Amino acid sequence: MTLREIKEILQAEVLTGEEFLDREPSSACGSDLLSDVLAFTKENSVLLTGLTNSQVIRTAEMSDIIGVIFVRGKRPDNYAIELATIKKIPLLATRLPMYESCGRLYLRGLRGCSEL
Q1: 115: in domain
Q2: What range defines the domain where residue 104 resides?
Q3: How many Å separate Cα 61 from the centre of its chain?
Q4: Which of 16, 58, 73, 114 would staple 95 via disulfide (CB 3.0–4.6 Å)?
Q5: Is residue 72 pLDDT above 70, yes or no?
């Protein structure tokens, strides 16, 4: 599954990184605790979160996350978008809640980080 397919499944908007939507995450992580993201995500994952600050982008970079999806209609500030653009981390935003977003992706075959 590619980030482009994830965009369609979650009816998401691309905030930056349209040119990277052909990346294929190996797993997904849904969390609002950045310490959990650092501790439990696998490289080449996609992160679903309701956090919108620039620390999300820095955490994604440190964890080799290939895309970030903001849930619940949340949107990062301009600085976070600019940082993600520089770091080449695609950002998407969906109005769906985290539980439903993760569920839709899981049903379509994208596994969680604990399953690898």
Answers
A1: no
A2: 3-110
A3: 12
A4: 73
A5: yes
The answer as to whether 116 is a domain residue is no
Closest CA to 102 of 60, 50, 56: 50
In a domain, 61, yes or no: yes
- The three-state secondary structure class of 24 is coil
| pLDDT tens track for 21-30 | 999 999 999 9
Supply the CATH number for residue 29's domain: 3.40.1390.20
The predicted-structure confidence for 5-45, as pLDDT tens digits, reads as follows 999 999 999 999 999 999 999 999 999 999 999 998 989 99
What total of structural domains would you count in the chain? 1
Q: Is 90 within the bounds of a domain? A: yes
Q: Give the dihedral of Cα atoms 11, 15, 17, 20; nearest 10 deg.
A: -10
Within 8 A by CB and 6+ apart from 97, the residues are 71, 72
